[in-house]
């Protein structure tokens, strides 16, 4: 039996799998901005819990959105 | 023929007629090349996420077109030349659309199968087996 941890960590789930969002569009700024914290870096999977296939599409979409000035490249 | 989305930003100094003129020109290029402009959307003025040509905001326009590479090349050349257009982005959509259709079909098939399974299990429940009557604990 595994040693019980002192605190209970909730299992992270991929938002896109749970809500069945198939199309991660670069136009959906509201959705994408949930995955860019203040410094406007792309949030890593280990924090957001997004699964690998969705993270790949997400980061592509964020990069497209940056290109057309919907999202910033960097903020001071 | 492929599906593309072309999004571009027009400078905030442009009036509505200017934008309409640009849209007309681009639509002309598409139809002249044998493509089809499916949708032309003016998304209105938006704050830009960063400075582009020293502008803080711009009017976004979105084209959804069916075209081939030559048409896209021509459109991009024209957008580059236009002074009022400060930024543009072309995205190819047909691969994505194909993928989405596949997912949708797959989901429908699964839902149908699940619906049938539900109906069967309902029938089985009408005549309960001894195992199902056992208490949970």
Q: What integer is the average pLDDT of chain B?
A: 83
Class from helix and strand fractions of chain B? alpha+beta
Order of helices and strands of chain B: EHEEHEHH
Helix content of chain B: 40-55%
The major beta sheet of chain B can be summarized as: 4 strands, antiparallel
Query: What is the count of helical runs of chain B?
Result: 4
From the alpha-carbon coordinates, what is the Rg of chain B to the nearest angstrom?
26 Å
Task: Give the strand content of chain B.
Answer: 25-35%
The CATH homologous superfamily of one domain in chain B: Ribosomal protein S6/Translation elongation factor EF1B
Level of helix content of chain A? Answer: 25-40%
Report the sheet-strand fraction of chain A: under 5%
Taking the sheet with the most strands of chain A, its summary is:
none
Look at the structure and give the CATH class of one domain in chain A.
Answer: Few Secondary Structures
List the uncertain runs of chain B: 127-137
Q: Report the uncertain regions of chain A.
A: none
Descriptive overview:
The complex is a heterodimer of chains A (76) and B (137). Chain A is globular and about 50 Å long. By secondary structure, chain A is mostly helical. Chain A has four helices and no strands. Chain A has helices at 15-18, 29-33, 45-48, 52-67. The mean pLDDT of chain A is 86. Chain A has a domain at 23-67: Irregular (30s Ribosomal Protein S18). With 137 residues, chain B is an alpha+beta fold. Chain B has a domain at 2-95: Alpha-Beta Plaits (2-Layer Sandwich), CATH 3.30.70. Helix content of chain B is 49%, strand content 34%. Chain B is built from four helices and four strands, in the order βαββαβαα. Chain B has a four-stranded antiparallel sheet. In chain B, a hairpin with a 2-residue loop joins strand 2 (36-52) and strand 3. The N and C termini of chain B lie far apart (63 Å). The interface between A and B is medium-sized, with 13 and 17 residues.
């Amino acid at each position: 039996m595994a040693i019980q941890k002192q605190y209970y960590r909730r299992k992270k789930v991929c938002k896109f799998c749970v809500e069945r969002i198939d199309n991660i569009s670069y136009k959906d700024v509201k959705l994408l901005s949930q995955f860019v914290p203040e410094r406007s870096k792309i949030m890593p999977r280990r924090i957001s819990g997004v699964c690998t296939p969705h993270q790949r599409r997400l980061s592509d979409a964020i990069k497209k959105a940056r290109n057309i000035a919907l999202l910033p490249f960097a903020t001071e | 023929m492929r599906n593309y989305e072309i999004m571009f930003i027009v400078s905030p100094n442009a009036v509505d007629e200017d934008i309409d003129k640009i849209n007309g020109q681009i639509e002309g290029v598409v139809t002249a090349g044998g493509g089809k402009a499916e949708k032309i959307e003016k998304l209105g003025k938006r704050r830009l996420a960063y400075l582009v040509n020293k502008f803080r905001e711009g009017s976004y326009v979105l084209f959804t077109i069916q075209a081939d590479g030559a048409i896209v090349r021509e459109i991009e050349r024209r957008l580059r030349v236009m002074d009022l257009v400060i930024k543009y982005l072309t995205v190819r959509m047909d691969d994505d659309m194909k993928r989405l259709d596949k997912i949708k079909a797959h989901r429908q098939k699964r839902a149908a199968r699940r619906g049938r399974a539900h109906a069967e299990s309902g029938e089985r429940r009408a005549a309960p087996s001894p195992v199902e009557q056992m208490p949970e604990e």
